[in-house]
User: Which sequence fits this backbone?
């Protein structure tokens, strides 16, 4: 361990780091000092340990919504005065009023606050079908002492991800096939026991991490006749060790993003892996879906971060014998695991790269006269390989959306300043309000380098007509990422449904793809009888050497439609076809699940699909991991 | 091709005479009107110069010039300069001031030669919508030099974006006029581009850039050239492919194709065209020639109809027909040979648009009269003509034709005003209606018998060209009627086999969408059922008592073509050598035909039309009864006499064609 002075300095940076995270994630909270110990998995002792660093209880529904996104205490609503506010205390936006959201909402969707479409109030356990139990399996599981539950609400909670159709069904009170029980292994060995028992008694296992899937990956296959056991990894959440010489950490795969980051921060480290879902999604889930983090430009995506993986499969445990940084030992077996979407086994432990917490962090933003110029700038930045930790380009609709989420300004002076800024950009610089778009930036590193880097990026932006638009706009852009999922629930209270989806595409096709997909959405909605033009918007969220990741949002007012869900599904399907026809990929980081399975063969060729199938057949011949994703 | 070739096309709404206002108000103020069309919302280039620069700077041009430089071992700068020169020769230089100038002049001309220029405003409203949403391709037919700028003229009048127009190089050669046209938005394409890779590259990049940047609507003649016979021509695919490519590659969301049908009561070039078909060479397009043609402007040409069809969405058409994924693995800037699917699709679209142009055509009473007159070469009484024309009007309307039959005017008056408009072709003497040229009044003593035949033929061909404007209405049922005449069987399958054979043989004569023979046959049959001449039961075609008149008429419609094809087949099997060039072919067929006519063995003067004669040859080539070989610099045709004889025998009903799979049964 380091000397005293060094460690106190580390503690200081850790505190600072916490504040930074809190900056774009949540309000700072009392750091609860928990020890990080590379402890053996002693089921009893740790299960009773009250100091566990866990933000995710077994009964998740106690702190989280059962039929919507995120924490129960945090939600958008229109108060009695018709003003939008965000409840709770967790986020920067919490407790604030957003005066212009109502107008934006009504104007964009043709929605009306008088027309409500409230969700079914509470989960009625009676509607959930009774569990289909494999009695022998249950008996033997009991003997191992691993906790499990057959409660309707526990099972219900794990029967879905966060696709629109899943949440919509919950709000309407429709429940499909549910897992028949939930089991909470506490460590790798628990998982080994569970998988052995499942194989022995032919029980279907479905791993469950953060539950943030948006690919129907968590839907129970309706044709499954065996007992389905949801394997909830949330209690496997310890950092087992940190190797400061090689800068790696060995972590249990059930840990959720915010806990991992917080715990590492306390030791002065971070992974730098920050997917938008990091409040809830788990390390194992990242591995199983090939997740991508906002700051991948510095830290890399999950496949770059992973050094070692341990996975329990029906054939046994797979892991490599060493932790060499790169190997030439045939195809990398990690790549069978990365993106396997729970079809091969359960990831139990992962060794990950870690980095010292950066000294300095700075947000920024640039306004461009139009989307085209913005994309050209991002392309140039990628070409010069000088992308900041994060660089994202929102289109005009999203820019306006962001504005609608501006909290009430505290002083006349601020609103006066805002007015001046607007005047400068639209009148003085001649930007068209309905064309301009904004890029948000996040720089990280040591102070001097950050400032240098910042200048370089702003210089490039200037060449494409970009104007620096301040740190505040940038920060708000990132904050939006975390609350946007909450907003969907608000929309659903007023007949508005929506979804996001993503792709990756070569640079020369970015503009064409964005335009065509957005247009396709608008046209499909019109054709399907949607009364009001939909919100159809996109942003470029990641840059690579050869292309970019593009993220789409679309939402529409479904009043007057007899089968809104079906319309929505058809539009989403058409949008994906359009993406593929324009040279986009099936998915950049959401994965395939069951939602996009139909395009897998076209995406990877039938030989490619055959290769994946043959792996599945070898590893899991009895389809114990029977969620039927991907293949 | 549901959207393109079924009967669910929009009925053209009311027509408005745009000359009416010109006659009431000042021509000058029309020419100087404020012009501020709503631009296409995605448009990004602003000037002709920027457009040219974008073409030259394109990745595609960089690639092609480099490739050619490597192939020829020349410095790339040289190739780029050449490309720049080609572009300079080609590119348009649209200037509003010239549009104004030309519109002013055209108003003067139009007012003199036409009684009315009729435009369907609902079509223009749809066009206005389309122009803002997607790049628009205006696809008119081309029947007269007069219509070259008519679209621009109308769009200017209605405050819509002025198109750039693909024109042939000969037009550019005309002093002054060429330059004026260039400034009115014409861009010029060489006739025989052949294997000139650089030229192709410049042209295609130029066209693609215009489409994908939404620089301006593109107007081009999908038929490739002016139809000498007023009949639709089979489309050319090169340009069609160029304008569609930005859609295939996802560079635009959609492209709107707007078929435009221009129909005339009387065509300015009528006599010129007839003589051209008879082998009197076409005068070179010169400015002086144009000025000399002023005498033409002294006459009355009746009305002109311009019908803007409903915009056709390429995206809709492409559903399930093309796979845009094929462009994913190669940079879109690189030249890529289009897949077979794509080629088939392009051909389908091009043919479909021609069919839509036909559907939008407005027939004059004269076209119907011409149909009747040509079936009675010896002439007929005015009463009979009137009675038959009125009957034919009913049939044409049943078949879905659009007629410009004046309301509240007696049938007699319609006849006489039509005949007076066409007094260069027809005259009425003592209640008898005759085509001119039977006996020349004051008979030219020195004229040879050949000269008489040619004079008569010219009149017949002029008359035939007006009939041709109406042919598309009757061609499908007519082919069914002919097929039924040459096969004794009434089984639908057998009739279809003959129908398909005839369609193949006449594939250059009439325009059919490839691969839609079953649909065409069904259409033909259902029209016959609709007019009461046929009943279709259990795969049998049963004739009714009305069949005698209708069937006879419909067969007679195709009679001149049948006869011409038989003459040519006879010539090829009995008279000609086994090998010849195209240059030798036409005079040989012509003199053979002339001989038959003089000997009284043939009464179809239309057989003298070089257009039909060429069509026969190329149809036989398609059917592989004739082959083409290159010997030296000459392309020679080689005749398979046995195969041609067989085709002749089938046509005469002596033997049966190999039965075709009738997919729709």
Assistant:
């Amino acid at each position: 361990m380091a000397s005293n002075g060094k460690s106190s300095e580390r503690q200081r940076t850790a505190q600072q780091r916490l504040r930074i995270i809190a900056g774009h994630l949540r309000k700072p909270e009392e750091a609860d000092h928990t020890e990080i110990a590379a402890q053996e998995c002693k089921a009893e002792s740790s299960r009773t340990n009250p100091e566990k660093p866990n933000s995710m209880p077994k009964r998740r529904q106690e702190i989280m919504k059962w039929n919507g996104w995120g924490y129960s205490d945090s939600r958008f609503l229109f108060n009695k005065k018709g003003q939008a506010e965000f409840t709770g205390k967790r986020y920067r936006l919490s407790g604030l009023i957003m005066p212009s959201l109502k107008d934006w909402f009504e104007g964009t969707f043709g929605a009306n606050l008088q027309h409500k479409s409230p969700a079914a109030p509470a989960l009625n356990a009676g509607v959930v079908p009774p569990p289909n139990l494999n009695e022998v399996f249950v008996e033997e599981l009991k003997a191992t002492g691993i906790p499990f539950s057959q409660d309707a609400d526990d099972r219900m909670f794990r029967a879905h991800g966060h696709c629109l159709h899943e949440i919509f069904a919950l709000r309407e009170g429709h429940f499909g096939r549910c897992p028949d029980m939930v089991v909470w292994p506490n460590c790798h060995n628990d998982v080994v026991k569970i998988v052995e028992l499942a194989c022995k008694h032919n029980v279907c296992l479905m791993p469950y991490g953060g539950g943030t899937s948006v690919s129907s990956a968590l839907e129970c296959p309706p044709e499954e006749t065996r007992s389905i056991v949801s394997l909830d990894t949330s209690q496997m959440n310890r950092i087992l060790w940190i190797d400061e010489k090689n800068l790696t950490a060995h972590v249990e795969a059930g840990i959720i993003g915010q806990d991992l980051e917080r715990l590492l921060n306390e030791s002065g480290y971070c992974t730098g892996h920050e997917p938008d879902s990091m409040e809830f999604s788990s390390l194992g889930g990242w591995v199983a879906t090939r997740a991508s983090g906002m700051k991948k430009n510095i830290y890399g995506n999950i496949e770059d971060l992973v050094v070692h993986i341990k996975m329990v499969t029906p054939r046994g445990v797979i892991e490599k014998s060493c932790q060499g940084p790169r190997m030439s030992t045939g195809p990398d077996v990690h790549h069978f695991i990365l993106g396997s979407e729970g079809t091969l086994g359960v990831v139990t432990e992962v060794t990950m790269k870690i980095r010292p917490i950066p000294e300095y962090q700075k947000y920024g933003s640039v306004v461009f006269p139009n989307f085209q110029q913005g994309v050209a700038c991002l392309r140039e930045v990628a070409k010069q390989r000088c992308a900041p930790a994060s660089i994202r380009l929102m289109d005009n609709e999203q820019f306006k959306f962001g504005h609608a989420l501006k909290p009430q300004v505290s002083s006349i002076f601020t609103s006066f300043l805002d007015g001046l800024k607007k005047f400068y950009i639209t009148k003085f610089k001649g930007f068209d309000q309905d064309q301009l778009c904004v890029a948000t930036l996040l720089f990280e590193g040591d102070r001097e380098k950050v400032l240098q880097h910042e200048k370089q990026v702003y210089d490039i932006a200037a060449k494409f007509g970009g104007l620096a638009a301040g740190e505040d706009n940038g920060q708000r852009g990132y904050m939006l990422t975390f609350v946007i999922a909450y907003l969907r629930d608000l929309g659903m209270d007023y007949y508005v449904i929506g979804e996001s989806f993503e792709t990756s595409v070569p640079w020369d096709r970015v503009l064409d793809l964005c335009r065509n997909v957005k247009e396709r959405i608008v046209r499909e909605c019109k054709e399907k009888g949607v009364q009001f033009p939909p919100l159809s918007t996109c942003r470029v969220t990641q840059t690579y050497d050869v292309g970019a990741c593009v993220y789409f949002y679309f939402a529409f007012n479904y009043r007057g439609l007899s089968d809104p869900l079906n319309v929505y599904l058809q539009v989403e399907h058409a949008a994906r076809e359009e993406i593929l026809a324009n040279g986009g990929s099936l998915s950049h980081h959401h994965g395939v699940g069951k939602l996009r399975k139909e395009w897998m063969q076209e995406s990877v060729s039938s030989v490619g699909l055959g290769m994946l199938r043959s792996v599945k057949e070898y590893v899991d011949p009895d389809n114990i991991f029977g969620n039927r994703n991907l293949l | 091709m549901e959207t393109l070739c079924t009967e669910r096309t929009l009925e053209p709404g009311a027509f408005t005479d745009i000359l009416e206002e010109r006659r009431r108000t000042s021509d000058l103020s029309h020419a100087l009107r404020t012009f501020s069309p709503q631009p296409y919302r995605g448009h990004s280039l602003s000037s002709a110069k920027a457009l040219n620069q974008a073409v030259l700077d394109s990745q595609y041009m960089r690639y092609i010039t480099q490739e050619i430089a490597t192939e020829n071992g020349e410095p790339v700068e040289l190739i780029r300069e050449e490309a720049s020169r080609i572009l300079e020769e080609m590119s348009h230089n649209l200037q509003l001031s010239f549009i104004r100038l030309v519109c002013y002049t055209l108003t003067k001309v139009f007012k003199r030669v036409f009684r009315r220029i009729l435009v369907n405003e609902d079509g223009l409203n749809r066009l206005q919508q389309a122009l803002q949403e997607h790049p628009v391709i205006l696809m008119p037919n081309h029947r007269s030099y007069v219509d070259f700028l008519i679209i621009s003229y109308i769009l200017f009048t209605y405050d819509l974006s002025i198109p750039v127009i693909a024109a042939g190089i000969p037009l550019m050669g005309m002093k002054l006029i060429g330059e004026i046209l260039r400034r009115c938005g014409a861009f010029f394409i060489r006739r025989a581009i052949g294997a000139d890779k650089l030229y192709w590259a410049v042209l295609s990049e130029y066209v693609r850039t215009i489409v994908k940047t939404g620089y301006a609507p593109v107007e081009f003649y999908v038929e490739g050239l002016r139809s000498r016979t007023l009949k639709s021509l089979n489309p050319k695919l090169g340009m069609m492919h160029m304008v569609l490519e930005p859609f295939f590659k996802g560079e635009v969301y959609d492209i709107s194709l707007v078929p435009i049908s221009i129909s005339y009561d009387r065509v300015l070039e009528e006599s010129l065209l007839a003589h051209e078909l008879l082998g009197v060479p076409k005068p070179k397009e010169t400015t002086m020639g144009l000025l000399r043609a002023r005498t033409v402007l002294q006459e009355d040409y009746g009305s002109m109809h311009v019908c803007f069809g409903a915009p056709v969405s390429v995206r809709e058409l492409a559903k399930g027909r093309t796979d845009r994924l094929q462009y994913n693995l190669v940079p879109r800037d690189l030249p890529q040979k289009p897949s077979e699917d794509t080629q088939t699709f392009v051909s389908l679209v091009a043919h479909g648009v021609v069919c839509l142009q036909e559907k939008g055509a407005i027939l004059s009473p004269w076209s119907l009269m011409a149909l009747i007159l040509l079936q009675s070469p010896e002439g007929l009484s005015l009463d009979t003509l009137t009675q038959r024309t009125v009957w034919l009007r009913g049939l044409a309307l049943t078949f879905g034709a659009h007629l410009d039959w004046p309301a509240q005017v007696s049938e007699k008056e319609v006849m006489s005003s039509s005949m007076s408009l066409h007094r260069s072709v027809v005259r009425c003497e003592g209640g008898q209606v005759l085509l001119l040229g039977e006996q020349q009044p004051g008979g030219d003593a020195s004229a040879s018998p050949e000269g008489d035949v040619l004079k008569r033929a010219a009149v017949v061909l002029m008359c035939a060209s007006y009939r041709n404007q109406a042919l598309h209405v009757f061609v499908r049922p007519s082919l069914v009627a002919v097929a039924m005449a040459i096969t004794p069987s009434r089984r639908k399958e057998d009739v279809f086999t003959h129908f398909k054979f005839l369609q193949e043989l006449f594939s250059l004569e009439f325009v059919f969408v490839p691969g839609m023979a079953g649909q065409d046959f069904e259409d033909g049959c259902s029209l016959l059922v609709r007019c009461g001449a046929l009943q279709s039961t259990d795969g049998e075609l049963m004739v009714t008592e009305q069949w005698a008149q209708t069937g006879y008429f419909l067969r007679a419609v195709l009679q001149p073509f049948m006869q011409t094809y038989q003459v040519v087949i006879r010539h090829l099997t009995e008279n000609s050598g086994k090998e010849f060039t195209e240059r030798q072919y036409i005079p040989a067929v012509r003199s053979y035909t002339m001989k038959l006519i003089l000997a009284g063995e043939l009464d179809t003067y239309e057989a003298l039309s070089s257009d039909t004669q060429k069509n026969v040859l190329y149809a036989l080539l398609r059917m592989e009864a004739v082959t083409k070989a290159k010997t030296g610099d000459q392309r020679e045709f080689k005749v398979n006499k046995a195969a041609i004889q067989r085709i002749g025998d089938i046509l005469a009903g002596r033997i049966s064609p190999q039965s075709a799979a009738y997919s729709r049964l």
Observations:
- The interface with chain A takes residues 42, 44, 250-251, 253, 324-325, 327-328, 331-333 of chain B (CB under 8 Å).
- The two ends of chain B are 19 Å apart (CA to CA).
- The first strand of chain B starts at residue 15 and ends at 17.
- Chain B has a mean pLDDT of 88.
